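Re: [ENG-882] Designed sequences occasionally contain unexpected residues at chain ends

Forwarding the minimal case from QA. Structure tokens:
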């Protein structure tokens, strides 16, 4: 760790806030595709760890900064000059201002408020330091970037939000924590097909001569990045699925166990677990706690303990 890296993390968090949490995450995916593709082809990758998951574009920095800034802007009730909201709606300047701090799609540059961007920078530094603690000091056997994103989201919820860990449900019927019926079937099928695609691709690369060490180092990040970039369709208003928690955990399971069936099973579990976190900590709330991050760090912990 250096002073320069901390300054870079502040800039990364501020950039993530100005761009918006989800757009910043998509940028992470673009850079990670380049780095991991180079790594899979040559065995040498200096881009992914240092840039895509480093102190500038790392999800624990840029995405986390955008999440914190959105919650802060909503609490401060900033107006937004323009931007894309969930469901394809467009946010415009209104007397009511930003009211949904859990929405990570819009660019907070539109607030014109320096304090919003500075909050993003602050949480960029917090995310960088927490990940350093998890990865370099405690050396936790998990995906520490994902764990940091989840931790940062929890800090935001309690420091800035007002709805508590599980939100404030005001419905007349009992709250659901897991998908049911056709929704559950769909989630299982989604996990199945993503897991099959990931594990087939990994097995194919292995058959073409990519070493086990290179696969372990680059393949999970590669499929994660593809899923991250696919969120550009959600950003522009399509109801596209979120799959990076499925693809990366399936890849982790495959490259460390060597068994594609285990990878597919983990993918299905990841799909269901992701929905559980959506309904538990990211519904009826005023800030974003990232369900994919919660899923990734929990399953990667189990995978690393059992297979790594």
């Amino acid at each position: 760790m250096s002073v320069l890296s901390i300054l870079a993390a502040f800039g990364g968090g501020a950039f993530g806030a100005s761009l918006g949490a989800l757009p910043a995450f998509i940028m992470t995916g673009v850079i990670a595709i380049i780095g991991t593709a180079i790594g899979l082809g040559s065995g040498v990758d200096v881009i992914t760890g240092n840039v895509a998951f480093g102190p500038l574009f790392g999800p624990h920095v840029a995405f986390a900064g955008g999440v914190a800034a959105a919650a802060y802007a909503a609490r401060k009730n900033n107006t937004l000059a323009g931007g894309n909201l969930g469901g394809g709606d467009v946010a415009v300047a209104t007397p009511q201002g930003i009211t949904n701090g859990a929405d990570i799609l819009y660019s907070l540059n539109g607030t014109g408020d320096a304090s919003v961007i500075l909050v993003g920078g602050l949480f960029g530094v917090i995310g960088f330091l927490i990940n350093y603690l998890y990865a370099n000091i405690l050396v936790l056997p998990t995906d520490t970037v994902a764990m940091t994103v989840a931790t940062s989201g929890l800090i935001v919820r309690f420091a800035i939000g007002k709805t508590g860990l599980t939100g404030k449900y005001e419905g007349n019927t009992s709250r659901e924590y897991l998908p049911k019926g056709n929704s559950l079937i769909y989630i299982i099928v989604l996990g199945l097909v993503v897991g099959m695609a990931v594990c087939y691709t990994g097995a194919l690369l292995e058959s073409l001569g990519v070493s086990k060490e290179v696969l372990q180092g680059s393949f999970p990040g590669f499929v994660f990045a593809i899923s991250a970039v696919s969120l550009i369709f959600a950003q522009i208003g399509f109801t596209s699925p979120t799959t990076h928690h499925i693809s990366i955990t399936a890849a982790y399971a495959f490259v460390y166990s060597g068994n594609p069936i285990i990878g597919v099973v983990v993918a299905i579990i990841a799909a269901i677990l992701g929905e559980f976190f959506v309904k538990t900590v990211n519904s009826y709330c005023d800030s974003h706690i990232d369900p994919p991050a919660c899923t990734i760090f929990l399953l990667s912990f189990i995978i690393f303990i059992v297979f790594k």
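QA comment: On inspection the terminal residues look reasonable. Confidence is low (pLDDT under 50) at residues 81-96. Proposing we downgrade this to a documentation issue.
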